[in-house]
Amino acid sequence: MSPVGSNTSPPPVAALVIDFDGTIVEQDVSEEILQAFAPPAWWDIDLEFQRGEIGSRECLTRQAALLSGRRDDMLTFATSQYTLDPTFAPFVRWASEAGLPVTVASDGLGFYVAPMLAAAGVEGVQVMTNEVTLEPGAPPSFAFPNGHPVCRGCGTCKMLIVLFERQRHGPVAFIGEGHTDRYGALYADVVFAKKWLQQIAADDGVPYIAWETFDDVRGALKRIDLLPGPVGPAKCPGWTEP
Ligand SMILES: [Mg+2]
User: Is 47 in a helix, a strand, or coil?
Assistant: First the structure.
C-alpha cells in the first residue's frame, strides 16, 4: 500500500468509495431511465425521498414499479446516451498505481453501472449496487446484496461499505454529490462533495472538499496531510428496522 499524501506518516487515505450517478456520470442515469420509461409520478416519489419521508429502498422499489419497457432497451438507452466523466478513467489508473482500491457504491437501478464502466475501459474497480430484475409482463423484483443486514432504509448501504473498506484497508475518502451519499459521507475520513451533497454535508456538520472533476480529487488527495476523520453517530440517522 502506497500512501498518497505528501506526508508519508501516517498514510492519509487507503481506499476510495465513489458514488456513480451524478458523480462518475454527470447525469443521474436511474432518473434518466425513469424519465424515459416511466410516467411522471416517479418524481413525486423522489421528492418524498429527498424530504426524508422514505428511504432510498422504498423510493427505488416504488419507482421501478412504474417502469415499462425491456431491460435491454433501458441498457441501450443508458450506454448510448450517457458517458463517464472523462477524468474518471485516468483517476482510476492513478489510484491503481497508488495502491488505492476503488469501490463504486451506487444506490440506483444498478444494472447499467458495470456495463458503462466496461464501455469506458475502466477496470479493477469493485461495484456494489442493487440488483433489479426486469422481465416483460412481470413487476420488477429487487435484491439488495449490498444492503444492511438489519436496517431497511437504503437499498445499498453506503455506511456499511465505507466502514467495511475502512476496516479492511484504513482511512476512506468518499466522493459523491447527492442524497444517497449522506450516510457514506458521515462515516468517511474525508469527503469530496459537489452539488446537493455540499449542503447535506454542511447540515450534518461533515467537513468536505469541493470538487468538480476527478483531477481535482487526485490533486487534493496528493496534497492532503490531515484527515478530518468520520463524524458519524453511533447509529446511522437513516436507520429503519423492518
Ligand atoms: Mg449520485
Answer: helix
